[in-house]
Amino acid sequence: MNKSEIPVIISHFDQQPTYLKFALKSAASFNKNVVLIGDNSNKNFWENHWDITSIQSEKYQAFQKCHIQMSFYPKKYEDSFWKRIFMLEEWMKKKDEKQAFLLDSDVITFGNYSRELAPILFGNYIASLMTCENQDNFRWASSCHFSYWTLEGLEDFTTFSIEAYSNQEIRKKLEAKWKWHNDNHQPGGVSEMTLLYLWSKNNPKVANSSKVTNNMTIDHSINTSTNYLENEYQMQLEIKKIIFRDGIPYGFNRILNEEIRFLGIHCQGTAKILMRFFYYKNLRSFYLVAKIVEIIKTKTKFFIQGIKKNG
Question: Rounded to two decimals, what is the model's pTM?
């Protein structure tokens, strides 16, 4: 293990899907210290694995006691959001690590984060999140699907999350957002992204990795043209148009009118199928074929459902 590099952490619980392999292996292709924080279900999936099955976190238990679900997400799904954050804090304390990059298991890596991003972040920020500029209509979302954390920042956020449900000012904000989702029949609700947004809003010590810095960025989601700004990147077949140059992905930024390097691509939702195509060099030219197949399957599914409904 190279202690000069900041650890790259990928968390996944309860299963070991194929796409997780591509997230881990792509991260390890560019970064020397890649850790899977998982459980008994995937303990043999990755050599550098930290099993949380028997880990007792008093702070996470305190959060669970005060947390009130205000979303339409399945409870198990929402619990996994929070578990990765509190378990990362436990891992950093036990391993005496002061910094870490945290990635979701559907992010595929194309850069050495310690070399490319740490010089910008270290000493200047306690964390870095993914936040779009437009937060109208109670969007209130900052994502940690790619995030940088110092132990100081992570401890501050988890403490904030526990206090949020007893602090009347913050609690009212959460309830107002939840009410908006119910009144307007909108999916989602209050999640860890809401708390991340409220914690980081107007905090000069929290960076935003959705923005372009030094002609590079992190993909917020391949399924949308929006990264930091709305309609920011060129699209093709309902996903960002990706151009590979010397094995590195770029997207055309319509605002800056130039190609921007992606250090990581977030293959969210049904786009997970693309991870295999992005990982293997000989398949990269065919990633749109996978997208076409996915579109046909989706349209066929809805077509059949419509026939059954009308029949």
Answer: 0.94
